[in-house]
Amino acid sequence: MPSSDSSNPMRDQVFSLPTLIREQIWTLEGRTRKIVTTPEMFAVRDVVLTGSGDSYIGAMAAEAAFVELAGVRAQALSAMQASRYHARRFDWQYPSNPLVLAVSNSGEVARVVEAVQHYNDCGALTVAITGNPGSRLGHAASRVVEVTIPPFASAPGVRSYYGSLLTLYLLAIRMAEVRGQVTADEAMDLRRELETAADAVDAVIAQMDQPLQRLAQEWASLPAVELLGSGPDRATAAYGAAKLLEAVGVHAAHQDVEEWVHQEYFVADAARTGTILICPVDSPAFSRAVEVEGYLRTLQRPYLVLSGGPAAAAFGQVLAHTQTIRPVFAPLLYSAPLALFAAYLSAETGAAYGRGASGPWADCHDGATTRNSLIL
Amino acid sequence: MFTERLKTERNGVVDITEGVRRAVASSQVQEGIAVVMVPHTTAALTIISFPDPLGLEDVNDEISRLIPTRIDFKHQHDTPQDAAGHVKSVLVGASLSLIVSDGDLVLGHSQAIYFFEFDGPRQRQYNVQVIGQ
Known about the structure:
The complex is a heterodimer of chains A (376) and B (133). Chain A has 376 residues and is α/β, with parallel strands linked by helices. Chain A has helices at 9-15, 17-33, 38-43, 54-70, 79-86, 110-121, 136-140, 159-178, 184-219, 232-247, 257-262, 286-298, 330-349, 368-371, and strands at residues 46-51, 73-78, 99-103, 125-130, 143-146, 224-228, 251-255, 273-278, 303-308, 318-321. With 133 residues, chain B is α+β, with helices and mostly antiparallel strands. Chain B is built from three helices and eight strands. Chain B has helices at residues 17-27, 53-66, 80-92; strands at 2-7, 13-15, 32-37, 43-49, 95-101, 104-105, 111-117, 123-132. Chain A binds chain B through residues 33-34, 37-39, 41-42, 177-178, 180, 183-185, and chain B through 10, 71-73, 76-82, 119-123.
């Protein structure tokens, strides 16, 4: 339960996540189980995960699950990359290939619809993952997985993001099971891991709630925040940046841990550039993250490391959790506290979500800037 | 009823003769019938000659030759291995009825009772009910 009276819709969405996971996991399992037939599962040689905004980030987060669990070539592409660059150049000689998993909660995002139309034209198997089966995306795709997220007070996407993540993870597990990468029992264990992630998220939120609230007070006047992560944690960094941009409007960016050393390390205004480094202790990037923390310290950047377990003591300034989760599912664990931080920063600064879709931002009212785009 | 659990390998074959004998002994039935059953639909029971283990492989190979794991089974709720396993289980059978005499199973000198796993690895079990005096 929330531990303070600074409630706001985004914070409330974060605190609702454990219940959402428990309530939706088996419903979504039923909806994904046979959405791709067994012969199609074996025909697939490549998986393309695509979307825009949070949906693209969800695709990034789930890419590793398809590679590591299902043993299939998989790549997350932004809708623009998928539609205008990839779809037309793909090798179309195989049936039901690639399997395109197109994510859009509203189902009305123009570039995602366009990407699916182009993939359809070339013989791909397209599956829409959406909360709106009657949308343009729902009509364009060969199949639809309906991701029903019970309504909640409106805020920059938190619950919908978790719905997308769960759906994509379940599809990866199902592909792994059908293609014989894991046994039926192992597949069920993986599904139960997703279910019990609810307990881990619950504990992480409770553990990090007050420290993140204090961090929001300390960082309220900073003009920029960077979030760093590698592998699936890069997606989490991107998600954190997206929430800060949407909820607060502070300039926020995400970067790979290694690439940061080559690029954003040189930002001149280091003392006013908040940095959040996301690195589970079992991440392959762990040793590099420890080195990067040393650079953050030397630069005198205000920073925080999100990590977990006893080995997290390798970091000097860390907010560590005690829960465990396999690295490919780590975005489930780390996205919630980042959304919570954005919620607190929004409350601290008084920023309206999405700048209230007013003034120079009025164009984005009702998602118009993403929906009203010429579809080629 | 006697229940014994076992952990199987993928497409594994397990000799359960001694376990069934223990069940018969614990029942204290001298003359009667022992019914052995697997409560699974992708496993089966049968009696095979045990002296040459390669004979077991022959049986398993022939079952797989008759019912190969294919991707075009109509049953797609689970995996192709599972779908093939259902058919194999039907053909081999899920239960055995065995004669009990003098408090022991009546088996031929080269006969043994085998549990066939057609999926796996799985946590499995078989049940034994002994009826008689």
